[in-house]
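Workshop exercise sheet. Pairs work together: one partner reads the sequence aloud, the other fills in the structure field after running the prediction. Swap roles for the next sheet.
Pair: D.N. / O.F.
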Amino acid sequence: MPDGTWPVDEEIDNLCTVDGMGLFKCPADPFCKEPADAGLSPDIDDPFNEKLTMYNMLGFDNLAWAMLTIFQMITLEQWTIVMYNLMDSNIWWMAVFFSVCLVTIGSFFLLNVILAVLADALNMVDQVQVRQDQARLLKIQRSLDRAAL
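Structure field:
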C-alpha cells in the first residue's frame, strides 16, 4: 500500500464481511477496510469498474438504486447475483428469505396483477372504440335512409 494502490487478492471472488455475519469472511485484514482507514484516497475504491458489484448497478446504497435493484429482481433479471452478494455480506438466511419472498410475491403475483390491469384497460379502450364506430355507422345509415325517402 505504500505505492497508493489497493491490495487485490485475485483468489477472492465474493463479497466478504469482517465480523463473519455472511457466508464469506475476509481472509486477511488489509482486504476489509474503507480506503481512508488504510491511508488511501477514497477515489481508489471504484465500484464502477467492479464486476463483483455489477459495476455499481445493483445495490441498496440509496432509495433510487434500491428501487431499481428491486425492480430488476422482480423482473427475474440477475436476481440470484443480488441474493448471493447479500448472502456473502449479511446474514445468509435473511438474504435467502428476502430474495425468495420478493421474487415469489413480486414477480409471480404483483407483476401479473399489473399486466392484468393493463390488459383490462386496453380491452375497455377497444370496447369504447367499437361502440363509437357502431354509433357512427348507425348515424350514417339513418341519414342515408332519410335521403332515400
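Discussion prompt: The mean pLDDT is 81. What would you look at next?
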